[in-house]
Amino acid sequence: MSDPITPPPSPTPPPRVRNISEFARIAGVSAGTVSRALAGKSVVNRETRERIEALAIEHGFRPNQMARRLRTQRTNVIGVVVPLGHERRQHLSDPFFMTLLGHLADAVTEAGYDLMLSRIIPDADDWLERIVQSGMLDGVLLIGQSDQFEAIERVAAHYRPMVVWGSHLPDQVHCAVGVDNRLGGRLAGERLIGRGCRRIAFLGETRTLELSQRFLGLQDAAAAAGIDPPLQLNTHLASDIMAGEIAAHLDEVGDRIDGIVAASDVIAMRAVRVLTDRGIDVPDRMPITGFDDLPLAEQTVPRLTTIRQDLVAGAQAMVAALFARIDGKEAPSMEMTPELILRDTA
Predict the structure, then answer these.
(1) pLDDT per residue as tens digits for the range 218-248
(2) Secondary structure of the chain: what % helix, strand, coil (to 5)?
(3) pTM value?
(4) Within 10 A of 195 (CB to CB), how many other CB atoms are there?
(5) What is the reported pLDDT for 255?
(6) Contact in structure between 213 and 181 (CB atoms under 8 Å)
(7) CB-based contacts of 272: which residues, under 8 Å, 6+ apart?
């Protein structure tokens, strides 16, 4: 029997480098050159930068992040905050939050920053001050104004690196990126009126700026068409109670409505389900529009007619505005134009 083959010894890995001074001696450059090279600074020529990067990988060297943050006075962390003063039962798993959050996370991490996510129930007046003064964040992205407009305005007066997804009003201090919600509500109303609807209901609450603007737009469309003002039926965004509320509203209004403008795609999709369960055909007996144009809107049966707000472009604009503000530059609010997306439900 032949002797077993002994495998060759594994190569000894290079010694792990303990600090930037040791690594600089190995690389034959100064510690400052190492720091600039690993930060991707163009002041270090490409050949030297690539050689230092390769050595760093070989020796498993990673600059001390805490030391770098102390030098730059940056944490490289962006806070993404979802305030829920208006809807305490709503969760981050809501399809709108998940869609916008995904786009924000892509843009933030591609820029080399980490992300810290917080779902906030504003039980104290200074909830936002505590976040921006924590020393943990370079900037803050707020998903929605909730019913916290005044708190956001107060903080924005002295804290610049903050951008909000939401509506923009005249003389508003804080930087907001969002769609013209009033125009969106009007487009939805005009679509139903064009189909012959004359008794329209708005499914949604109006405690938040965005949703109240959508209802105002629907009122504009009704007034311009000379029909009765729309009914406003409070419907929460919390998924666990939404279907029950919609069913109760339908029981109450009966045949007094012939069309529904929903404050969001999620509300619209739940309304379609409730109506279908009752044998009420959508759209022949009850056309419905949503608002957002989430990916799910095209996947439901029937497919959802809705008002599109471009969440990809909006997220990119939010992050671009935030980084501009972090760098001390001006970044005004941006209001996007909504678009009516015609599908099966209207």
Answers:
(1) 999 999 999 999 999 999 887 778 899 999 9
(2) 45, 15, 40
(3) 0.77
(4) 13
(5) 86
(6) yes
(7) 282, 288, 300, 302, 304, 345
